[in-house]
């Protein structure tokens, strides 16, 4: 699990007038809205006696109050009121917890899990079709995997598996015909263009089968983004019909991944077709989960020496390369084994921007241990473009 990235913590409409608990990167956080509707995110632990702030309430000070002794924490994580000391009572300087930047995009609450300054953060992935309601209709769903997030992302951009795992997307006998046309990779993202030869399009009450002939060449464009561990899958059904699956994959912990999924389509934009779209999307995710949750080992192998790859694996290899750079050169990977030694005895937290701005402050909570980079480098990774014949 990596820090210093944006992740989706919850659907925006789930956070209303009460605090909500969210779990990311193995840690608990509290989400709450202030009087102006802005969502805030703090560590879900009161540094007084360990109360869970998500079990509390919001106050007139635009704070979230601990249900144990009523201490009130503002959006910056600072304690503004200690009831036992009364109004105007002194508040210790150390009485604060970590607060994290938030953004609402695409119906989701994004939280930056790290201490980088704003100028140094990778951006939230683009999804321009989401706001173009004249041309695209969205549906929303989610899926929870008993799997490592990196396995989930890799599966989402792996076109070669479709001929075997998804009957609605491919034929086994056409596996050698499917191919990658182009790959591009940046420091934090990658995109590719592929050609598949799938069965007729399903859904639309049977109407969709008229719009794509059996085994017709179909152009598919998978992309990945390190922020949100996002997969953006654009499927050109034919020359005028397209759908996009945009899923943000949040590591709840090292064994659980929660996918926040938005699908948009530029055809049959009436609500009567939404239920079928959701059902088909969840069926595809379940087909993938049946395979991904049984993969061995549970985590991605750290070395390619432990696997055998072929040319069709180039794009999943691009994801591994991007991730590996941030582990080995930037040192952003959480050392879960080191944390496990203190389970139940010590609370850790993700480092926040305020820690970088206040290095002299004695924080009550320790930050998660990180794995030391094995190949430190300060230079950005240049864009790589690969064209297949």
Automatic annotation (TrEMBL):
Residues 6-111 form the Rieske domain. It holds the Pfam family VanA_C. Gene3D superfamilies: Naphthalene 1,2-dioxygenase Alpha Subunit, Chain A, domain 1, Rieske [2Fe-2S] iron-sulphur domain. One of its GO terms (molecular function) is metal ion binding. It comes from the Bacteria. InterPro entries: Cholesterol_7-desaturase, Rieske_2Fe-2S, Rieske_2Fe-2S_sf, VanA_C_cat. SUPFAM superfamilies: Bet v1-like, ISP domain. Coiled coil: none annotated. Keywords: 2Fe-2S, Dioxygenase, Iron, Iron-sulfur, Metal-binding, Oxidoreductase. PROSITE patterns: RIESKE. PANTHER family: BLR4922 PROTEIN (PTHR21266:SF59), IRON-SULFUR DOMAIN CONTAINING PROTEIN (PTHR21266). This is Aromatic ring-hydroxylating dioxygenase subunit alpha. It comes from Halioglobus japonicus.
């Amino acid at each position: 699990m990596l820090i210093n990235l944006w992740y989706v913590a919850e659907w925006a409409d789930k956070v209303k007038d009460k605090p909500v608990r969210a779990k990311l990167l193995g840690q608990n956080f509290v989400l709450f809205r202030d009087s102006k509707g802005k969502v805030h995110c703090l560590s879900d632990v009161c540094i007084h006696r360990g109360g869970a702030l998500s079990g509390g309430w919001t106050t007139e000070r635009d704070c979230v109050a601990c249900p144990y002794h009523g201490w009130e924490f503002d959006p910056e994580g600072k304690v503004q009121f200690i009831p036992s000391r009364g109004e105007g009572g002194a508040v210790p300087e150390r009485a604060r917890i970590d607060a994290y930047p938030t953004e609402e995009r695409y119906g989701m609450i994004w939280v930056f899990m790290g201490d980088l300054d704003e100028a140094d953060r990778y951006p939230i992935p683009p999804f321009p079709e989401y706001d173009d309601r004249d041309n695209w209709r969205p549906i929303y769903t989610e899926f929870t995997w008993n799997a490592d997030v990196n396995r989930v992302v890799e599966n989402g951009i792996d076109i070669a598996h479709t001929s075997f795992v998804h009957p609605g997307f491919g034929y086994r006998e056409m596996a050698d015909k499917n191919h990658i046309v182009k790959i591009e990779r940046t420091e934090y993202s990658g995109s590719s263009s592929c050609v598949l030869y799938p069965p007729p399009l399903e859904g639309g009450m049977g109407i969709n089968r008229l719009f794509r002939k059996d085994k017709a060449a179909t152009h598919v464009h998978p992309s990945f983004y390190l922020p949100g561990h996002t997969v953006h899958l654009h499927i050109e059904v034919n020359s005028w019909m397209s759908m996009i699956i945009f899923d943000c994959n949040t590591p709840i912990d090292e064994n659980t991944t929660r996918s926040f999924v938005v699908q948009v389509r530029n055809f049959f934009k009436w609500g009567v077709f939404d239920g079928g779209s959701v059902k088909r999307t969840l069926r595809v995710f379940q087909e993938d989960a049946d395979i991904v949750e049984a993969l061995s080992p549970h985590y991605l192998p750290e070395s390619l020496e432990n696997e055998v790859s072929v040319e069709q694996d180039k794009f999943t290899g691009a994801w591994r390369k991007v991730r590996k750079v941030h582990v080995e050169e930037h040192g952003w990977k959480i050392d879960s084994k080191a944390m496990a030694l203190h389970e139940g005895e010590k609370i850790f937290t993700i480092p926040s921007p305020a820690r970088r701005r206040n290095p002299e402050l004695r924080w009550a909570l320790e930050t998660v241990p990180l794995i030391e980079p094995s190949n430190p480098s300060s230079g950005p990774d240049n864009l790589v473009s690969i064209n297949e014949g």
